[in-house]
């Protein structure tokens, strides 16, 4: 291993636990990327998820020849302050599990756990699309739909660890056709996640056309002039505009950052500002809408930075038992 003054040099390790993939990154002392890997998520397998993360951490250490002195993990949910167990995770096999304690035991070192959208927001506020902004709202539009809030460089987790849970509010100003809305895994219907996530766009297109296509395929069809695909994307813009107008009306952030697979749809950055302005409670609106600078890896970078003192205020630390 690399050594400094006779001891193995340290790296910061970040893990982003997603619905379809788990990404790991190793950052050097100055934040430079030393190694990064992605592996499939063992969906539905809690023990397999713990083993996969442990193997990924070991692989990062082997690749860099350095010790992961700190490990931060972003999860699609939160650790409940009331029970110490995972709640609100769209990777439902995590729900009700002491994930932070089990992972600390598996890795034999302390870990810090934070909501994955908060990790995205931390990363983008530090040196990405929200750099220099006081209040950053970062939304993940991917397998699910979540968001993180950073104020003056610190993630806002909230008293109940649900700060930024934008995707599980109802779609604002719904039309008759949108009521009561699709069923959501959380047990309610009509959540924003059921309208503006990647699978939700695919389901909306299927309901309208009978065609089973991914959101990416729908975007490609729209680009080629397909009217039905364009109508699906128009509905997405309208619904995102309403959802983000609700954020602006309450939080009025300095910038809105988009991450996740749908954030790669270039037209969103010109179509969304007027769609948001239509529903915002203001005579004018100049809130910038920006793509995450660090793309799909922004969340994993934010996880690696959870051990900075300012992030420690929000993140939950667990020591191996």
Tell me the layout of helices and strands.
Blueprint: E1 3-4, E2 7-8, E3 10-17, E4 21-27, E5 33-40, H1 46-64, E6 67-75, E7 78-79, E8 86-87, H2 99-107, E9 111-115, H3 116-127, E10 135-141, E11 145-151, E12 154-155, H4 193-196, H5 198-209, H6 215-223, H7 227-250, E13 255-259, H8 268-277, E14 289-291, H9 298-304, H10 309-312, E15 316-318
Parallel strand pairs: 3-6, 6-9, 10-13, 13-14
Antiparallel strand pairs: 1-2, 3-4, 4-5, 7-8, 9-15, 10-11, 11-12
Plain-language structure description:
- The structure is a single chain.
- The chain is an alpha/beta fold and 321 residues long.
- The protein contains ten helices and 15 strands.
- It has helices at 46-64, 99-107, 116-127, 193-196, 198-209, 215-223, 227-250, 268-277, 298-304, 309-312, and strands at residues 3-4, 7-8, 10-17, 21-27, 33-40, 67-75, 78-79, 86-87, 111-115, 135-141, 145-151, 154-155, 255-259, 289-291, 316-318.
- The strands form four sheets. Strands 5-4-3-6-9-15 form a six-stranded mixed sheet.
- α7 (227-250) crosses α8.
- It is globular.
- The relative contact order is 0.16.
- The model is unreliable at 1-8 (pLDDT under 50).
- InterPro entries: ATPase_NBD, ROK, ROK_cs.
């Amino acid at each position: 291993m690399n050594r400094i003054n006779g001891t193995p040099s340290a790296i910061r390790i970040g893990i982003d636990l997603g619905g379809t993939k788990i990404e790991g990154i190793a950052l050097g002392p100055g934040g430079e990327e030393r190694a990064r890997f992605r592996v499939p998520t063992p969906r539905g397998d809690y023990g397999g998820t713990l083993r996969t993360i442990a193997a990924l951490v070991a692989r990062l250490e082997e690749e860099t020849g350095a010790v992961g002195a700190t490990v931060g993990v972003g999860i699609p949910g939160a650790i409940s302050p009331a029970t110490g167990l995972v709640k609100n995770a769209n990777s439902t096999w995590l729900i009700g599990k002491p994930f932070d304690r089990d992972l600390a035991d598996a890795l034999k070192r302390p870990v810090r756990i934070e909501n994955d959208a908060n990790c995205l927001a931390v990363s983008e506020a530090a040196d990405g699309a929200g750099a220099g902004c006081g209040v950053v709202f970062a939304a993940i539009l991917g397998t699910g739909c979540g968001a993180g809030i950073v104020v003056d460089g610190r993630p806002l987790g909230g008293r109940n660890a649900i700060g930024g849970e934008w995707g599980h509010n109802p779609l604002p100003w719904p039309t008759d056709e949108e009521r009561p809305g699709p069923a959501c895994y959380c047990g309610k219907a009509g959540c924003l996640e059921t309208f503006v996530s990647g699978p939700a766009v695919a389901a909306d297109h299927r309901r309208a056309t009978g065609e089973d296509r991914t959101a990416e395929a729908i975007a490609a069809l729209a680009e080629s002039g397909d009217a039905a695909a364009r109508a699906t994307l128009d509905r997405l813009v309208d619904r995102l505009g309403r959802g983000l107008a609700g954020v602006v009306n309450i939080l009025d952030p300095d910038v809105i950052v988009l991450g996740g697979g749908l954030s790669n749809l270039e037209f969103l950055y010109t179509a969304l500002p007027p769609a948001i302005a239509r529903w915002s409670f203001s005579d004018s609106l100049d809130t910038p809408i920006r793509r995450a600078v660090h793309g799909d890896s922004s969340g994993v970078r934010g996880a690696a930075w959870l051990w900075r003192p300012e992030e420690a205020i929000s993140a939950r630390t667990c020591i191996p038992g």
